[in-house]
Amino acid sequence: MMLLSPMVWLHAGEQEDAEKAASALAYDQEAEGYNIRAEVVTKTLEAKLGKATRMQLYKGNEYCFCVAVPKGSGVHITGAVLDLEGKPAGEILPVLDGWGFVLFYKPKKTGMYMIAVHQTDQGKRKEVPVSMATGYK
C-alpha cells in the first residue's frame, strides 16, 4: 500500500471544498428553475494564467455557470462567457467574499463558446482547484 504525501491530501481537500462551493451555488440556481447537470468539472487555476472551458451552447436556452475555488483559499475569481467572436459576455453575480460567482448567459446562436475564469488582484494569487457546475433552462 502506498501512502500519499500530506501535499496530495491537502490538494484533495481543496478540490473537495471547491466542488462543494460550486455545488452550493448550483443548488440556489436549481431553486430558480435551472436544470443542473450532475457532473461538476474541476481543474487547476494558476495564479497568473486563467482557465477556459469550451462548451456547446444552444440558442433558446438560458445557462448558468456556478464557479468556485475553496472558500478558505483567499483567492478571488471572476469570469465571462466568450461569445463566438471572442468578446466577453454574460451577466455575473459574484459572491461577496470573492471565492465564486454565478455567470448567466443566453446565446443568440448555437455554437461553441468558452467560459473563462481568472484570479483577481483583490485576493491571494496561488494555484488552486476551480470547480464549475452548469445549469440550463
Structural summary, described in words:
This protein has 137 residues and is α+β, with helices and mostly antiparallel strands. Helix content is 18%, strand content 41%. Strands 1, 2, 4, 7, 8 and 10 form a 6-stranded antiparallel beta sheet that branches. It is globular and about 35 Å long. The termini are far apart. The N terminus is likely disordered.
Can you lay out the helices and strands and say which pair or pack?
Blueprint (H helix, E strand, L loop, with lengths): L5 H25 L4 E2 L4 E5 L5 E7 L5 E6 L8 E6 L5 E2 L1 E4 L5 E6 L5 E9 L8 E9 L1
Antiparallel strand pairs: 1-10, 2-10, 3-9, 4-8, 4-10, 5-6, 5-9, 7-8
What's the count of strands?
10
Parts with pLDDT < 50 across at least 5 consecutive residues: 1-10
Note the overall shape: globular
Relative helix content: 10-25%
* Estimated radius of gyration: 15 Å
- Taken in chain order, the helices and strands follow as HEEEEEEEEEE
What's the total helix number?
1
The average pLDDT score comes to 89
- DSSP strand (E) fraction? 35-45%
Attribute tags:
6-stranded antiparallel sheet; disordered N terminus; 10 strands; 4-stranded antiparallel sheet; alpha+beta; 137 residues
Write a concise synopsis of the structure shown.
This protein is an alpha+beta fold.
